[in-house]
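Appendix B. Chain record.
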Amino acid sequence: MLVKSIFKKYYNYYPKITSLLKNKFAQGVSYVFISYLILGLAGFVINLILGFYYTPADLGIFNQCFALTQLFSVVGTFGIVSSNVHFVAQHTDDLKLQSDIQSSAIILTFSISLFLSVILYILGNIKEDIFFNKEVNQAFVRIVFVLPFMVSNRLNISYINAIREMKLYSILQSARWLLLLSIVFIFTFTNQDINTIVQSFLLSEIILFFVILFIIRQFFKFTLFLSKEWVIKHLYFGGKTLLVSIISETNGKIDIFLISFFLNNYNVGIYSFASTICNGILMIPSAVATNFNPIISKLWYEGKKDELQQKVNYIKSILKKIMIPVVILSAIVFPIIVFFIMNNKDYAENIHIYYIILIGVSFLGTYNFMGGFLTMTGKPEIQFLNMLVEIILNIILNIILINLYGITGAAISMSLLKILGLLSMSYFIKWKTDINLLPRS
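Structure tokens predicted for this chain:
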């Protein structure tokens, strides 16, 4: 009877989903969702391949390098990705203005990220264990000049998002991960060492860079002439969002960084295998957020707060129906992976890591699409305050729990942080915008 009741519930909901998919927003979400699904599957397969053919320590090196490239690419954008989406979304009818905004953003971010790459390269050669340890340092220094390409790709893809070309946006996002997966696959099956595998990041971003340059030229006219007005606006808005972006990216990598600091590459590999797959579930609300952020900016700019609240409520109701079966399915599938697919018993012996993290993911999943809400409503300083609270909690919880319980402690910390982060985000959004995220009592 229980199975029949659940089936009936979701069967009755099917016509609503069908109706929803007929509107432009939902179509955009569906495109982005497909790209995030590809992203999640690619990340899963990469971890599966490396976990099967390489040691947990090698997987740890790969994921630490990935964490470093993600963090420093955020620094290299100087918050201008958020600035770009914010301003371009407000001027969708003026191609000349959009071109000025985008051209200025490209020149600024490429210059900043190139300078950052040079500094990091010098530091990595001066001190051979500055990036966690010698093994990670050696691998990362070889790919540090990925940053200008990665930053440019992020910026150009964000422009596609801002002008609401969601199908193309999804294709480009998918291409990024399929390229990375393909290169990892080729290197793995030609028996390359982990340092060569890590260079997949650099090769995939360079290829994507030239592909995007060819495609995006039809949507705006690039000019080498810097607009003083938009340089100032980008630096001002981007500067306000930079710390938010850095803290947000660091917040998601604190567990990896601190496991690296207190433990070793082996423990990073075991933990990151479970956490990467589990956190892939959050790509569903992230797909919604990607599509929703320009709408937030536009509705708030036009003063349509009631309409914005209605959209928030509607999206929550849809996501709740989606996330419940996804979480249940993931809980069933993961043991099959570690017991019957992986050839290393260490992953199976630490299966509890996955389920601890899954608890926090199940709480945050329905609401994670609101992660950039405060920035998109022009309040990046409040977004920073919210993220500051979260990262302080993250650091404290991880330091205490990793030292007490090792990677199990890191999993407990991550799960607790997702629950506390949801409460913090809800409080700050309600305080500054009067938009309700959690159900009112």
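Further analysis of this model is presented in Appendix C.
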